UniProtKB/TrEMBL annotation:
Its cofactor is pyridoxal 5'-phosphate. Keywords: Aminotransferase, Pyridoxal phosphate, Transferase. One of its GO terms (molecular function) is pyridoxal phosphate binding. SUPFAM superfamilies: PLP-dependent transferases (SSF53383). It catalyses: L-aspartate + 2-oxoglutarate = oxaloacetate + L-glutamate. Residues 28-390 form the Aminotransferase class I/classII large domain. The keyword Transferase applies. It comes from Capsaspora owczarzaki (strain ATCC 30864). The lineage of its organism: Eukaryota, Filasterea, Capsaspora. Belongs to the class-I pyridoxal-phosphate-dependent aminotransferase family. This is Aspartate aminotransferase.
Length: 397
């Protein structure tokens, strides 16, 4: 019956772990997939999450369906977390709970396809490789604007502004709110301010993907600067949020999708349409993770504890960046690796080519995506030296 179904290719990112698992080398290192590991390389459940889980379990809650739009307290807590409590009070928003960040992006695509004059989203050149797949699957076409400058391993801000200025009014433009994946290169606050002006003048629609709030710098307000500034400037972004990284709730699939609107009536109509999109897709979202996130966000002592954990996780990544640079020098590399400590978030965009990456894999059992992206959370004091020595071996002229 299905003899004609061809074998599909493995997911380029998730397939890496598969290959790493099969590698018999005891020295193998996985710096492919982006899920936080502690200082011993182990998966990490946040203590604040464990506490919230115990409290929720003690309440003997029922397992009834959530409503189509999701857990009501979660929806407002998530948006308040993104915007801060003052701005939150001033906006008209349609927020729904989503199946983590990916599901939020898909809802964004579905919404744009139905209601945007021109369902196309401009993506930064270098972006999370799933962005176009999610949007295309929703029937939205994608194009790109210049962002990354490979020759300097930094942001080409001038080219970015040039490209955005040429887009037609109303165009949707995707922005990584913080911790740009894969490059780890974000605009500065002054550049975000300039970008907000460009969006206003050109009447562009900002589509913020915020998958790392609090996880990037350890300070959720700082990481939300761009989103908050755009809203303060009177722009009405659409926003996707994920609690996978910042709460370590990966498999719980906790996220939110928001359309910021100009009036309460508009927000009500948009929410009604989002419900019509969700109902035939997955009916209603899962309840467990949303309960955990809501409990943490709405309980001040647990919020404070969680903020400490955000500092711990982001601090460990920053420390690993410094250690990697030191180890590269110790290994004898004379290249300038300073960009590694300038980048932020889970990933280090190393500037290594597909050939370097292949050599790392074949000769050193080190696994990373072919664009040279190193997931910093896969590094520990036990393996960072080996990675540095291998990087030097493959990059020395
Ligand atoms: N956007 C970006 C930029 C990401 O890096 C990720 C996770 N890799 C996501 C969205 C969505 O992740 P999730 O569906 O696990 O929340």
């Amino acid at each position: 019956l299905w003899a004609g179904v061809p074998e599909g290719p493995a997911d380029p990112i998730l397939g890496l772990t598969e290959a790493w698992r099969k590698d018999p080398s005891p020295a193998k290192i996985n710096v492919g997939v982006g899920a936080y590991r502690d200082a011993n390389g182990k998966a990490f459940v946040l203590p604040s999450v464990r506490k919230a889980e115990a409290i929720i379990a003690g309440k003997n809650l029922d397992k009834e369906y959530a409503s189509i739009e999701g857990h009501a307290d979660f929806r407002s807590a998530a948006l308040k977390f993104a915007l801060g409590k003052d701005l939150f009070k001033d906006v008209h928003a349609a927020t729904v709970q989503s199946i983590s960040g990916t599901g939020a992006l898909r809802l964004g695509g579905e919404f744009l396809r139905r209601f945007h004059r021109k369902p196309e989203v401009a993506l930064p050149d270098r972006t999370w490789p799933t962005h176009d797949k999610i949007l295309n699957a929703a029937g939205v076409s994608t194009s790109s604007y210049r962002y990354y400058d490979a020759s300097t391993i930094s942001l080409n801000f001038k080219a970015m502004v040039e490209d955005l200025t040429q887009r037609a009014p109303g165009s949707a433009v995707l922005l990584h709110a913080c911790a740009h994946n894969p490059t780890g290169i974000d605009p500065t606050q002054a550049q975000w301010e300039e970008l907000a002006q460009v969006f206003k003048t050109q009447k562009l629609l900002p589509f913020f993907d915020m998958a790392y709030q609090g996880f990037a710098s350890g300070d959720p307000s700082r990481d939300a600067f761009a989103v908050r500034h755009f809203v303060q400037q009177g722009l009405h972004p659409i926003l996707t949020q994920s609690f996978a990284k910042n709460m370590g709730l990966y498999g719980e699939r906790v996220g939110a999708f928001t359309v910021l609107c100009e009036t309460a009536a508009e927000a009500s109509a948009v929410l009604s349409q989002l419900k019509l999109i969700i109902r035939p897709m997955y009916s209603s979202p899962p309840i467990n993770g949303a309960r955990i996130a809501t409990h943490i966000l709405n309980t001040p002592e647990l919020t404070a504890e969680w903020e400490g954990e955000l500092k711990l996780m982001s601090g460990r990544i920053i420390e690993m960046r410094e250690t990697l640079v030191k180890e590269l020098k110790a290994a004898g590399s004379t290249k300038n690796w300073d960009f590694i400590t300038k980048q932020i978030g889970m990933f280090c965009y190393s500037g290594m080519t597909a050939k370097h990456v292949q050599e790392l894999r074949e000769k050193h059992s080190i696994y990373m995506t072919s664009d040279g992206r190193i997931s910093m959370v896969g590094l520990t004091h036990a393996n960072v030296g080996a990675l540095a020595r291998a990087m030097h071996a493959v990059t020395k002229a």
